[in-house]
C-alpha cells in the first residue's frame, strides 16, 4: 500500500517535522518508524543529496527500552530502499551527526532526548547539517510504499531479524575529535564528577575527561532510564549534585541528557549552571565573534560586551543553525550558537597551535564542558567565579506537563488581540501582581513580556511535547525561580 507521511501523522498520532518524529513508544510501531525513515530518505533523494547506489546511512540510539526496536525499523527501511545501514550503536546524538557530516551521508538518531521513557523519537540529519524549517514541507509531503506482508496487525514486523552488527567507528571518532585537538594534560589538576545516570554518552564523557588529564569520578549510574532535562532540572538532580559537592572532592560536576547533546555543568558547590550561562562562558573560551541564540536566553550575553555580534532567533536548533549560516555568509570567522537547554553549536573551524577543531553545527554537550573547565584554567578561577563575572541576570524555566497544545494556544490568544494597548492591559491584569507594568512585548516565539522593572516572563508551548513552558529573567536566581513558579500557578488555575 501507499501512504503519505501527512496521512500517517494523523493516523498514528506521532508528530513528524523539523525536529524529527516524537510520540508514545506504543504509537511508534515498526511500520510508522519504517515509513518515516523511508520518507526522510526519499526526500533527500528528491533534492539530489543521495542516490540508491549502496550509499551508507548512519543510525544510532539512546538507552530507552524501545530504542533498539526503532533502530532496527530505521535500518530495514534504509536497506529496503537500497542503502547500507551502519548501526553505530548506543552513542551520543552529536557522535552520529558528526559521523554523517564527515562522511557526507545521512544520519538518523533514535532518541526521545529528555522526555519520559514511555515516549521516543527519531532525529534526522542531512549529509552536511541539520534538517531546517525549509525542509519540513518536502519531508511531510512524501508518499511511501509499504509492503503489507512486512507487518502484522499490530504494526510491528511480522518477522523479526537478527540485529545489525554494531560499528564502533562513530563513537570512537567523536572522542578523538577532542583528544586530538586539546593537549593531553589540558585538564590536569581538575577533579570532575560525572553524573552518568542513563545518559548514552556517560562512558565517552569519562574517557574524554580522563584522557585530558582530569581526575574523574563516575557517579549515579543507572540501568533504568532517567528523564534528565537540562532546561527544567529535576529537584532530585539539584539535591544530588549539592550532596556530592558537599564532600569537597570536586571542582565541578558534569552530566548530559538522555542522548547527550545537551550538557549540565555545576560549580564546585554543586549548583548547576543555566544552559544560557554555560553557553556564554563556552563562547568566551572559544573567542566567538558571532553568537546566534534564541530569544528566550539570558540577556547577559548582550550586557557582558564580550562579543561583536549577537543574533536572536526563534527557539529550536534549526533556527539557530539558519542564523549561524547567515552569520558565516556575512563574514564572521568564529560563529557559534547556543540554547537555553545548554545545547551548543559550532559553525566554524577553530584553529590553534596548528590544530583544527572542525565545525559541528548540531547540539553538542562535550564542547561546553571542556570550554568552561578550560576557561577556569585560563583565568585561574573557579566555576562559580566565572559565573559571577557575568552581569547579574538570572534565568529560570519550568513547565506544566501533560498540557494540551490547544490549551496553550488558547492562553496565548488572550494576549494577542492585534491591539498592543489591549494586550498589555490583559497581561497586566493577569501578571501585574508578579512583575508590575508591561514595558514591551516580543512575539518572535511565543510571548516574551519585558516589564518596566526589567523582569521578564516568556510563555511558550513546547514544540515537541504536550507541555507549556515558562521562562523568567530577573536580577537574582531566587527571584527568577519565584516568577516562574507564580506564573505557572496562575496559568494552571
Structure in words:
- The protein is of the alpha/beta class.
- It is globular.
- The protein folds into 3 domains: 2-169, Alpha-D-Glucose-1,6-Bisphosphate, subunit A, domain 3 (Alpha-D-Glucose-1,6-Bisphosphate, Chain A, domain 3); 180-388, Alpha-D-Glucose-1,6-Bisphosphate, subunit A, domain 3 (Alpha-D-Glucose-1,6-Bisphosphate, Chain A, domain 3), CATH 3.40.120.10; 394-491, Alpha-D-phosphohexomutase, C-terminal domain (TATA-Binding Protein), CATH 3.30.310.
- The longest helix has 17 residues, at 30-46.
- The chain is 36% helix and 24% strand.
- A 6-stranded mixed sheet has the order 2-3-7-6-4-5, sandwiched between helices. It has a 5-stranded mixed sheet with strand order 14-13-15-16-19, sandwiched between helices.
- It has 16 helices and 24 strands.
How would you summarize the topology of this molecule?
Elements: E1 2-4, H1 5-12, E2 15-17, E3 20-24, H2 30-46, E4 56-61, H3 67-80, E5 84-90, H4 93-103, E6 107-110, E7 119-125, H5 133-140, E8 143-145, H6 169-179, E9 191-197, H7 202-211, E10 215-221, H8 235-245, E11 252-256, E12 263-265, H9 275-285, E13 290-294, H10 300-303, E14 309-313, H11 317-329, E15 335-338, E16 344-346, E17 350-352, E18 355-357, E19 360-364, H12 366-379, H13 383-388, E20 394-400, H14 405-413, H15 420-435, E21 438-442, E22 447-451, E23 456-461, E24 468-474, H16 477-491
Parallel strand pairs: 4-5, 4-6, 9-10, 9-11, 13-14, 13-15
Antiparallel strand pairs: 1-8, 2-3, 3-7, 6-7, 11-12, 15-16, 16-19, 17-18, 20-24, 21-22, 22-23, 23-24
Amino acid at each position: 500500500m501507499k501512504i503519505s507521511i501527512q496521512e500517517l501523522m494523523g493516523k498514528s498520532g506521532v508528530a513528524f517535522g523539523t525536529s524529527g518524529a516524537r510520540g508514545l513508544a506504543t504509537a511508534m510501531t515498526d511500520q510508522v518508524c519504517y515509513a518515516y525513515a523511508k520518507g526522510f530518505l526519499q526526500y533527500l533523494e528528491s533534492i539530489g543529496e543521495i542516490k540508491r547506489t549502496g550509499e551508507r546511512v548512519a543510525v544510532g540510539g539512546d538507552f530507552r527500552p524501545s530504542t533498539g526496536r526503532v533502530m532496527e525499523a530505521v535500518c530495514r527501511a534504509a536497506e529496503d530502499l537500497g542503502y547500507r545501514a551502519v548501526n553505530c550503536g548506543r552513542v551520543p546524538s552529536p557522535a552520529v551527526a558528526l559521523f554523517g557530516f564527515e562522511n557526507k551521508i545521512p544520519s538518523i538518531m533514535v532518541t526521545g532526548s529528555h522526555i519520559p521513557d514511555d515516549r521516543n523519537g527519531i532525529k534526522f540529519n542531512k549529509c552536511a547539517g541539520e534538517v531546517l524549517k525549509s525542509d519540513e514541507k518536502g519531508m511531510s509531503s512524501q508518499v511511501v510504499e509499504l509492503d503489507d506482508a512486512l507487518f502484522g496487525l499490530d504494526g510491528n514486523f511480522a518477522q523479526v531479524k537478527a540485529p545489525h552488527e554494531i560499528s564502533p567507528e562513530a563513537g570512537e571518532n567523536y572522542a578523538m575529535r577532542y583528544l586530538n585537538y586539546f593537549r593531553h594534560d589540558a585538564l590536569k589538576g581538575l577533579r570532575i564528577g560525572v553524573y552518568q545516570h542513563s545518559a548514552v554518552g556517560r562512558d565517552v564523557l569519562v574517557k574524554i575527561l580522563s584522557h585530558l588529564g582530569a581526575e574523574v569520578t563516575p557517579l549515579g549510574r543507572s540501568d533504568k532510564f532517567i528523564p534528565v532535562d537540562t532546561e527544567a532540572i529535576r529537584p532530585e538532580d539539584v539535591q544530588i549534585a549539592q550532596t556530592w559537592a558537599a564532600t569537597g572532592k570536586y571542582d565541578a560536576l558534569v552530566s548530559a541528557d538522555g542522548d547527550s547533546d545537551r550538557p549540565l555543568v555545576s560549580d564546585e558547590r554543586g549548583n548547576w549552571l543555566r544552559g544560557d550561562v554555560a553557553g556564554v562562558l563556552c563562547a568566551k573560551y572559544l573567542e566567538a565573534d558571532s553568537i546566534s541564540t534564541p530569544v528566550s536566553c539570558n540577556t547577559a550575553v548582550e550586557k557582558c560586551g564580550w562579543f561583536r555580534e549577537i543574533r536572536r532567533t526563534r527557539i529550536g536548533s534549526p533556527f539557530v543553525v539558519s542564523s549561524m549560516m547567515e552569520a558565516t555568509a556575512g563574514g564572521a570567522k568564529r560563529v557559534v550558537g547556543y540554547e537555553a537547554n545548554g545545547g551548543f553549536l559550532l559553525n566554524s573551524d577553530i584553529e590553534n597551535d596548528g590544530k583544527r577543531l572542525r565545525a559541528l553545527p548540531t547540539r553538542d554537550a562535550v564542547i561546553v564542558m571542556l570550554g568552561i573547565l578550560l576557561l577556569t584554567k585560563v583565568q585561574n578561577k573557579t566555576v562559580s567565579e566565572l559565573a559571577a563575572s557575568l552581569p547579574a541576570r538570572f534565568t529560570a524555566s519550568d513547565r506544566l506537563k501533560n498540557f494540551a497544545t490547544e490549551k496553550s494556544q488558547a492562553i496565548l490568544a488572550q494576549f494577542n488581540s492585534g491591539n498592543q494597548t489591549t494586550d498589555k492591559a490583559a497581561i497586566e491584569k493577569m501578571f501585574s501582581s508578579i512583575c508590575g507594568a508591561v514595558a514591551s512585548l516580543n512575539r518572535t516565539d511565543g510571548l516574551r513580556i519585558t516589564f518596566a522593572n526589567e523582569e521578564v516572563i516568556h510563555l511558550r508551548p513546547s514544540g515537541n511535547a504536550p507541555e507549556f513552558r515558562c521562562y523568567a529573567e530577573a536580577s537574582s536566581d531566587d527571584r527568577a525561580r519565584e516568577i516562574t513558579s507564580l506564573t505557572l500557578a496562575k496559568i494552571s488555575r
